[in-house]
Amino acid sequence: MPSIIYDVAVSIDGFIAGPGADISQFAHAGPVVEAYSARLAGYAVAIMGAETYRFGYRFGLAPGDNPYPHMTSHVFSQSLDLPDTRAVTLHRGDCAARVRRIAQDAPGPVYCVGGGLFASALLQAGLIDRIRLKRAPILLGAGTPLFAQVPEGLRLRCEQTQTYDDGYLFQDYAVIRAAPS
């Protein structure tokens, strides 16, 4: 089964966006963004919650559009309304079971977009295999957390670290699954 990868920019104090979903302090160009774009090209499927999908509206995404045209994109929401002619698949109900099925059928790595609540639900269900962090040299103080909640005692193994001249740090972690008792 292809990996589910949470690939996200995060402040030193653990926020993926500031208050009001502000991302203006994160890099929008430069080597760290170029490396992210190269990774993005290798993902086959995108999965996201409604808040992350709606966030795209600020940048011209129309309801129903696919924010990642080179990928099959899935949006998970109990309340989001999208047109019948949408270019994304809208899921309601049990998120974990559907994500598991999507990953099983995916032709390549699955990109978990955004975070906070959605990434937490996937992490709690044991569905995130890798966490890729673009650690920004900023402190936001408040906003959208990397995870709203994490399982107790979860272990990670850092498999790659890359430093950038502008102070960014990329880290690629494997999520260590506990052996069944």
Outline the structure in words.
Helices cover 20% and strands 29% of the residues. The chain is an alpha/beta fold. A hairpin with a 5-residue loop joins strand 9 and strand 10 (169-176). The chain starts with a strand and ends in a 5-residue tail after the last strand. The mean pLDDT is 93.
Please state the oligomeric state of the protein chains shown: single chain
**Element order, helices and strands?**
EEHEHEEHEHEEEE
Count the E strands.
10
Total number of helices: 4
Q: β content, as a range?
A: 25-35%
* Class inferred from helices and paired strands: alpha/beta
Q: What is the gyration radius calculated from CA atoms?
A: 16 Å
Stretches where pLDDT is under 50 for at least 5 consecutive residues are none
**Global morphology:** globular
> Spatial order of the strands in the main sheet?
5-4-3-6-1-7-10-9
Q: What is the mean pLDDT?
A: 93
